[in-house]
Amino acid sequence: MQHRQIVSKSALGWQVRLEHITMNIHSLFKHPAVRLLTLLLGVSVLSLLLSFLIVQTYGLSFQSAWSAFVDGAWGSPYVIGASINRALYFALIGLGFILADQAKLANIGAEGQIAVGGIAATALCLYGGAAHLPHGIAFAYPLLGAMLAGACWGGIAGFLKAKMGTNEVISTLLLSFIAVWLLYCCVQSESLLKQPMNTSASLPQSLPIPDSTSMPLLFASSGTNLNVGLVITVLLAFVIYTLMHYSRFGFHLKSVGHNANSAKRAGMPVFSTIFLALAISGAFAGLAGGLMLQGDQQVLKTGFSSGYGFDGLVVGLLARGSVLGVFAAALVFGFLRSGGINMEMVAQLPSAVVLVIQGIIVITIAGASRWLSKQEG
Amino acid sequence: MAIDTTVIDMLAVFAGSAIRLATPLLIAASGELVSQKTGVINTSLDGLMLSGAFLGIYGSYATGSPWLGFIIALFGILPLALLQAFLSVTLRANQLVTGIGINILALGATTLMYRKVFFESKAGAVSGSYGFSKLNLVDEQHFPALANVLNQSWIVYLGLLLLVCIALVLKKTALGISINAVGESPQTVDQSGLSVVALRYLGVMTSGVMASIAGCFISLGDIHTFTEGMTNGIGFLALAAIIFGNWSLSRTALACVLFGAVSALQYQLPAMNINVPPALLIMLPYVLALFAVAGFMGKQTAPKALTVPFFRH
Amino acid sequence: MMDVDYLTSQQGSASVLSLQGIKKSFGAFQALKQISLELHAGEIHCLLGENGAGKSTLCNIIFGSLKADEGQILLQGSLFQASSPKDALHHGIAMVHQHFSLIENTTVLDNLLLGRSSGVLNRQQQASDIKNLLKELNFDIDLNVQVKDLAVGEKQRVEIIKCLIRQPKLLILDEPTAVLLPHEINALLRICQRVAERGCGILLVTHKLAEIKQVASKVSVLRSGAIVDFSDQPIQDIDRLVRSMIHKESTDGEVQLLKREVSQTRLVSPNARPLHDEVLQVNGLSYTDPSGVKKLDNVTLLVNKAEIVAIAGVEGNGQSELASILSGMLDATAGQFFVEGQDLTHASPKQLTQFGVGVIAEDRHDTGCITPMSLAENLLLNHLDRYSKFGFLNRKKLKADAEQLMHRFDVRAASSAVPFGRLSGGNQQKAVFARELTLNPLKFLLASQPTRGLDVGAVATIYNHIRDARNKGLGVLLISSELDELLAVADRILVFYRGTIIGEVHAAQANREQIGAWMAGQA
């Protein structure tokens, strides 16, 4: 009897310890941050596996694909600069996205807002007298125009939501398509932004913008091609962070997002909060468009915003409301894109593999969103 | 006399193009409408159409028969549609975001597979023509105008048949009542003993299969080839048609025809020496849908539970 | 009036429902204590009780939305507990809810056919079948009309038909006449009688005496979770039944607490006041809701300084709409209201707050507070002007002031940063009071159902606050369905019934029976 008791006691002890461990892991997993990290880890592993598989089916060596990717992503100062520049565009769109997200508004029209920003910036650079302004301001004036254009475009959706309750996802999406075709219109017509036709220049695109309106370079000697846009973006990140967490407007955003009724009863201006949230979100995407024009591209052409809008949207979604998250995701996507482009050129692996990975990331994060945000109790 | 025939010829060509351009919209929109009536929106419509287009061409290339290619497209789309249904209905994820994710995935996957199959990773154009030739219903020699209008791919007529079938099911069967009810008040449907989940899965799968057929029309029926990202936003145009048609099947069909006609004008107007920037015409359907959604065309009556995941209390 | 022959002929009929010793608790709160009830085929058994008595809980248990903790349910003699509404429907129990579950954009016929037909429809055949059933019950409805075009009374009829085509053995109706006009009520009661005649057992939940007198064969009175009275001759016993509905046992600690306070505060004579010191003047206020039901009908009342005016009445008789209009969340269809002479009928909530109107909302989670946000944020939700400078929020000052308020009003929480939703109901409500009572200026306080769901201690604290406010000169409009609390605290009591004031009395002359009768619609 005693012997059996001793045995069962120690067996019980072992079981109890195992139970403790499983309970601790279980309660650890109740923490949203832990869940997010696990998911990101899982997605990264899945992406690597998938890319490996794809590379194999293409009969290429993983080695060559990987080295091409690395070269294209961070292989030289110039390439690093290009990656960071790309990341900046995504970051701006992401920042605008998370601001509107505070009020539970989803701005998915970034692609279109970039387009109108680009149109406005081009017009001001080429024909709006920006070239004649003193050197320091010549680039700022079109950028402001781009922001304003983006703000108007987002503001339309904001107005419709605040006034009629129109679902902002549908309205920003429709506006996005309209803007892209508006851009097409502008660069196809000489009376608008198309370059004057002659034998050497007949492509549907604008004239190149004057040098004085280009973004001034930072670290001009290092060959990184980084421009003032970096400073602007980082500054704006601080602005967004302050707005969201320290300003009254940020408080209004959160309140309206949680409970518009109570916000109204507490005297908060619900209409203007919704309108401004989407307008500011649009302004950021418009600014990205202006930066793209005055930084990398220098010329406005069709397909100007192609893909950047949706990539920025994905960055915003992944960030889950955090400014640091936006930058983290933006950098990842920026480098992914650069690496992908080089992989295609050098290692013959289509950059579409990046699209596949992006798609899987979006699907996984969206599918797991309820699991990620489940609070305990 | 000569002027008259030219006008008729032009109208015939215009009508023929309009039908050709409206068909993928019509097929995709009518399938998606079924899904939206059950309360699930598929922003992945474009990706599903693109996948169907690729599967059709691939199947045709691999088996040598466009008919088998078509069937492969019908079955091949099922896993993707199932994924969309699983995300939207079972996981109750944000339907708009998952749709965009699937769009990106489909674009990437079809591009990769296309290049692998046809070119071993280089971009290029498919050589050879895969697909269905147009039906020869009307003798082109004797009735050229009518031939332009009626000699379409058989898929056009399939689309019309499916449209009629969907209309009949929605209006005349018990299933139709259930489909209409689930998007308005899923709680009521649940209480009356029916399965909300099953109805919604049915809706999404219908949308997926119809989207695949629409994609096949573009690749197998119309262009006879595949190009990367060939749908180019046409799925969103179908969504716009549903919005503009205020979720009524007949109005959505008319909206598709309208949008098709507007698209056809792109080619028609230059031929008539009218210079309207084509981009304006392409933009017009989206503008119309925006007006509709902004409430300028009467009250919008979307299914009340559209995009809202169902939780049993 | 009930036909005596009809009554006697039902005496020997089969038992449809037998509840024995049903108990149900939600955490520490006992909603139902040992309920026993017998319902026979062919009879209309009324369940009489005020809000919070446990009527809805009981119905939900019978219908399968909730499960009883203890006790037995016998359906036609055999043990049965529905596991879900679907299950209940399957076994012949049907319920007509207060909130209809109909598909608005569809015809009546299609609503009735949902889940009850398969394959290709023969609408004409189905329609004529249903019409036959309706003929037997002697009422009619146009099957081809869209539900959204129906009046509320007609919509309810569709709900009832939905239940009846399943040939149920037991039909539960939960406060069905709340949304009906007088002639519609009569029609409904006649339908109930006819349904009962066909052998169905009906459980009619109501607080309205007129209905009971018209159709009830049996009445059970539910109060505080227990069946306290029963009668099988309702018309004779009606007065006794009403008393049972509103009377609380004298051992109830809450009443004692309040009674103690009452004797002290009654010292302030309500008649020693200067003229023209009205704080709130409501003038002919009316409200018709979007579906056409008149919720407020030409209401005129006033509240003076240093006065607590209570609005009594069972919930759903227009009090919520009045509160919403007075707090700026709803627009009246006619009439005005003035605070200290200022017309605030169309004022925004912000203007109302700035003018000095404090509001304790009926549902703090819906309109009063933002539950996911912190206690500090909720404590100062409508005072943000004090803490913002150049658009920035002074969070430090916010936190300090919040902590002061917590201390002053005894709001207990680990810290001011705790999410509001984590606090107990009592502390949440204390926080709301802290917020509204510290408005500056504060001229008038509107408190809607302020003690709903709170324990005895919290209730006492809340009423202390209300009394303090009154003693400082504030005018208070207190809306509550807790009659005992009102009697202990108010200076004047108005009773709402169907959107109008059916009776008014000074507290000194207030009489429980009279008020109870008013609450039940007896002028």
Describe the structure.
The complex is a heterotrimer of chains A (about 375), B (about 325) and C (about 525). With about 375 residues, chain A is mainly α. Chain A has a single domain (about 40-195, about 205-370), classed as ABC transporter involved in vitamin B12 uptake, BtuC. Chain A is about 75% helix and about 0% strand. Chain A contains 16 helices and no strands. Chain A starts with a helix and ends with a helix. In chain A, about 55% of the residues are buried. Chain B has one domain (about 1-125, about 145-295): ABC transporter involved in vitamin B12 uptake, BtuC, CATH 1.10.3470. Helices cover about 70% and strands about 0% of the residues of chain B. Chain B has 12 helices and no strands. Chain B has helices at about 1-35, 45-65, 65-90, 95-120, 145-150, 155-170, 175-185, 185-190, 195-225, 235-245, 250-270, 280-295. In chain B, α6 (about 155-170) packs antiparallel against α9 (about 195-225), α10 (about 235-245) packs across α12 (about 280-295) and α11 runs antiparallel to α12. Chain B starts with a helix and ends in a 20-residue tail after the last helix. The mean pLDDT of chain B is about 85. In chain C, α10 (about 255-265) packs parallel to α18 and α15 crosses α16. Chain C starts with a helix and ends with a helix. Chain C is an alpha/beta fold and about 525 residues long. The model of chain C is unreliable at about 1-10 and about 250-275 (pLDDT under 50). In chain C, the strands form 5 sheets. Chain C has a 6-stranded mixed β-sheet with strand order 6-7-8-3-9-10, sandwiched between helices. The interface between A and B is large, with 49 and 47 residues.
